[in-house]
Amino acid sequence: MSKRRPTLRADSLGVTYVVTHPEFNSVKVGYTHSGSARFRDLRKLGWRDFGVLVVATHRLARDIEQATLLQIRCRHLVPVHLTAGLMPFGWTETISASLLSPLAVWDLVCEEAAWAHLAPSVTRPPDRRRNNGGIPPRRRSGDTLPYALIARTQARLERTAEKKD
After folding, report:
1. Which domain holds residue 21?
2. Against a cut of 0.70, is the pTM above it?
3. Region at 111 (left for phi over 0; alpha for psi -120 to 50; beta for the rest)
């Protein structure tokens, strides 16, 4: 019997979360995938859920968490709060609740999620419409996203610049 860790599917749902610890007066932002035991493990250590954001993919959840941490460390200049001894996993994502409230951290998560969803690199989660057996797969209405307004504007500007040359 193999004891391999299950591999994470690229299309599994991601979760970005904010939890608090009243005794440490600490806030933690993190990410995981749906079905993970991370919340159970955090609750055993005394952490309480504050906010949970479910997103389309695990990678998107990680991107939101990393962007939030970048904002916390660089824009708000809030250092790491707990040590590895107090927090066995994820101690680098902890923040003092005295310096940044849980609500402020949750607002940053929501803001970064909005920016991530507006990014041109974000596409729809895989919905298996392209695996329809055709070689090449048959294209149907709705297989591609409509072009964003800024992309259409940029393409128009590039076309007019080529005509002037």
Report:
1. 14-118
2. no
3. alpha
Q: What is the DSSP string of 12-64?
A: S-EEEEEEEETTTTEEEEEEEETT-SHHHHHHHTT-EEEEEEEES-HHHHHHH
Answer whether 95's CB lies under 8 Å from 103's CB: no
Domain count of the fold of the chain: 1
Reported as type and span, the H/E element at residue 118 is: helix 102-118
Lowest-pLDDT range of 63-67, 73-77, 86-90, 152-156: 152-156
Residue 95 resides in a domain = yes
Can you give the pLDDT at residue 148?
74
Residue 125 domain flag = no
> Is residue 3 included in any domain, yes or no?
no
Rounded Cα distance between 129 and 151, Å, is 24
For tokens 């996993």, name the residue. 89
Determine the 3-state secondary structure of 121 from DSSP.
coil
Residue type present at position 75: R
* Residue 82 falls inside a structural domain: yes
Give 12's pLDDT tier (boundaries 50, 70, 90): confident
Task: Please name which of 35, 30, 26, 27 lies closest in space to residue 17, comparing C-alpha atoms.
Answer: 30
* pLDDT score for 122: 56
